[in-house]
Design brief:
Blueprint (H helix, E strand, L loop, with lengths): L5 E5 L4 H12 L3 E6 L3 H11 L2 E4 L5 H11 L4 E4 L14 H25 L5 E5 L13 H21 L5 E7 L14 H6 L9 H12 L9 E5 L6
Parallel strand pairs: 1-2, 1-4, 2-3, 4-5, 5-6, 6-7
Bound molecules: NADP nicotinamide-adenine-dinucleotide phosphate (NAP).
């Protein structure tokens, strides 16, 4: 489906990002992905999929912009890099919270704008948000919830900027997905499943399937929208 298409995934070495890299590579795209700390995992994934791994810290705005520029022109940009800081808001290190905002909010904004400069008509931008952008049922994750709800404004606004050029931008909002960041056998398992209609963690491949559909030819009329995949966590 993506033969001849150029795809960049920011944050592709592990978890949901790695599943997205595998999916686009399997479907014939030329895939570049970034990583920050997981060099070995990135090199293994690049070998396995025939994709290209580039070290770029999503907290570094200028590095993100440079990587997007050097990888372009892109048919598809996926911004997946993101993380949560847990704990009492009154006790948290403000520098760590600001780093979260740089990775989870600033990088998606600047990468999307840079990608759109040279993106052809039919281009696709997909950002991985979270159902926590809609619903935050536990304490200690306000910064994460804030960052993921900010992406909703990003998509609504940039859809207007890029729509006339036939470029779409969408947010995929997963619920609990089985990755290193949220393992299916982790301590929060029972609590998370208690909120859900389908009482299991999702699989990274299920998220990658939604991303592939949004990036594909059937989704050209879908933009400025949030796409929740969460077993009804947020329902
Ligand atoms: N798992 C869930 O339950 C869940 C639910 C909702 C939303 N999400 C969102 O889905 C996305 C992926 O989550 P995940 O569960 O797959 O997390 P993960 O297992 O921790 O993997 C995170 C990936 O993002 C990369 N990354 C993190 N910080 C980065 C940085 N500063 N620069 C470049 N790459 C960076 C990591 O690369 P390195 O290891 O190389 O640093 C890794 O490839 C995140 O945006 C997360 O908020 C996850």
């Amino acid at each position: 489906m993506f033969q001849g298409k150029s795809v960049l995934v920011l944050g592709g070495s592990r978890g949901i990002g790695a599943a997205i890299v595998r999916r686009f590579a399997k479907d014939g795209a030329a895939v570049t992905f970034t990583y920050a700390g997981s060099r070995e995992a990135a090199e293994r994934l690049a070998d396995e999929t025939g994709s290209k791994a580039v070290r770029t810290d999503s907290a570094d705005r200028d590095a993100v912009i440079a990587t997007v520029r050097e990888s372009g022109p892109l048919d598809v940009l996926v911004v997946n890099s993101g993380f949560a800081v847990f704990g009492d808001a009154l006790e948290q290190d403000p520098d760590e919270i600001d780093r979260l905002f740089r990775v989870n909010v600033h990088a998606p904004y600047h990468a999307s704008v840079e990608a759109a400069r040279r993106m052809p008509e039919g281009g696709r931008i997909i950002v991985i948000g979270s159902v926590n952008g809609d619903r935050m049922p536990v304490p200690g994750m306000a910064s994460y919830a804030l960052s993921k709800s900010a992406l909703q404004g990003l998509a609504r606004g940039l859809a207007r900027d890029f729509g006339p050029r036939g470029i779409t931008i969408n947010i995929v909002q997963p619920g609990p997905i089985d990755t290193d960041a949220n393992p299916a056998d982790g301590p929060m398992r029972e609590l998370m499943h208690s909120f859900m209609a389908i009482k299991r963690h999702g699989r990274p491949e299920e998220v990658a399937g939604m991303v592939a559909w949004l990036a594909g030819p059937e989704a050209g009329f879908v933009t400025g929208a949030m796409h929740t995949i969460d077993g009804a966590f947020g329902a």
